[in-house]
Amino acid sequence: MRPATLKRIGGGGLLVLAAAGAAWSAVDSAADEGANPVAAGLTSDPIRGVDGSTPFNDAIDRILRCRTAGREDCVGVVYVWSPSMPLSREGIVEIGRATEQLRIDLAVVEASEIEARAEALFPSDGAPTPERRLKSPEDALTSEMIAAGATVHQPSILVHRSGSLVGSAILGYKTADAYRAMVEERLRGDTAAPMRPTGSLPVVNDSVEWTKDYSVSGRPGAYFRSVAGRQALAYEAGGTVYLLNLRDGETSVAPGFVDFVPTPDGRLFVTPGANRRGLEFYDADEVFEAAAGGRGRRIDPIYVDRQLRDQYPSVGILETEALGAGRRTVYRVLTSWFDRIVFRDYEVQGDETGGETIVRPLTDRVAACPRVSIPILGPSGRELAGRDESSATTKIYSLSERGECQEVSDLGVQTGKVAWSPDGGQVAFAVPRGAVRDGSGTLWVGRDADLAGIYLYERDSGRVDLVDGSNDAQRLAFPDFVSPDSLVFLLSPESRRSAFRLVCCVSP
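Now predict its structure.
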C-alpha cells in the first residue's frame, strides 16, 4: 500500500475548468410545467415530525447544555443538509423517522450556517491566531464539527452524547433503517472513527494565463459530470438536468432530475428513476438530439432496472469490442445501497449506424464494501474510491466479482466525492475549509496555511497536489475531469448568476 504525501501542484500545462455559481438559497417553491414529479416533490417541506430547521446556534447550545449536565442519556443527532444537494433535503424525512424511533434529539441544520461560522472564525485573508480559533466553547465545538466532516458532503450526520461528538460524520443519503443502524453503532462505539491529525501543506505561488466564462441560468448543484467525447457537461439545477455545450456555451434540457451520469465512453447516461422506480438508461445520441430540438424532457429511457433503486450511480467499462457494424460493451454500474455498495454488470449492444441499443443485465446485484460511503467507481470498473467510515478517510479499493473490497491506498484525509482521470491514474477531490487538521489538532486555514481546495492524487507517486487557485472553490465541491489535463469544479459565487469558467494554464 502506497502512502499519500501532500504538496502544492508543481506541474505545468493543466487546464482547469471551473464553475462559478451560488448554491440555491432555497429549493424552488413550485416546479415548472412538465417538470419531473419527483423534483416537484422535493420542493415541498419534507420535515415531518420535526420542529422545522434548527438555527445552528441553537444546535450548538443543545449540545453544550448536555455537556454541562454531564448526563449519559443526553444523546442526539445534528443533520446537515444543503440546497445544492437535493437528496440531502429528501433525507430529512428519513433521519426524522430514525431519530423518532431511537427517541433521541434531532437538529436539522443548513450547511451554509456552519460555513458562515467557519468563515467568521477562520477568515480567508490570513491564518488566524490561536485565540481567535478557540475563543469560546461554541467556537471550539464548531471547529470540532467541521473537522469531523460536517461540510465534506451533504447530508452529513453528527452523533453526540453527553455534550461531545461521537466519532466522525456519517456521510450520504440513506433510508431511515440505515440511519438508525449506523447511529446505534456510533453510540455503541463499534464504528466511532478517530479524527486523526494530518500534516499541513506548503504553498507555492503559481500563475494563471487566461480564463473563459460560460454564463448559465439557474444554480448548478454541487455534483455534475463531464460527458466524454461531447465537449459537454451534465448538471442539475432546481430539479432539472441541463447539458452545457462547451463549444458555444449554449444549454439545453435533458431528462432526469438528479445525478445524470454519463458512461466513461459517453455512449449512455444512467440516472435514478422517479419515485425510486429503478435505474434508468438513456442513449446519449438520443438525449443530445432531443435536447437540441427542445424535447429533452420528453424522451423515454431505453431500459429500466427495477432492482437498482438507490442513488449515487457511477459507471466503469469492463470490456468492449467491435461486433459487426456495432459494438458490444460490458458496463458495471455501482450505486450506494443503504449501509453498503451494490453493483451490477450489463451488456450493451448497438449498431453504430443508428440501430437499436439493447441493454441486458449479465449478473444479479452484488453487495460490496460495508462501511464505505459516497463511492465512485473507477473507469475500469474494477476499482472504487470512497470514504471508509471506520477511518473517516478516503480510500481506493480493488473490487472483485464477488464484491470483495481490498484496500489499495489511503489518501489519509477526508474528502467529498472523487473523480477519476480517464485512464484511472489520477484521482481528483476537494477538501473544504477546516476539514483537515495539522499535527496539533488545530484547524489551518487562510492565505499562509490553507488546506481548502481541489487536489490531484497521482497514484504512481502517491503524491497529492493542490490545484492552483482552487481555494476559491465552492465549499461543497466535487471536481471532474474534462480531459486528462483539465478539471471542472464549482467556484464560490460572487453574484446570483452562475458561470462555468475555463482556466488555463497552471504553471510552476
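The CA atoms of residues 214 and 256 lie 23 Å apart.
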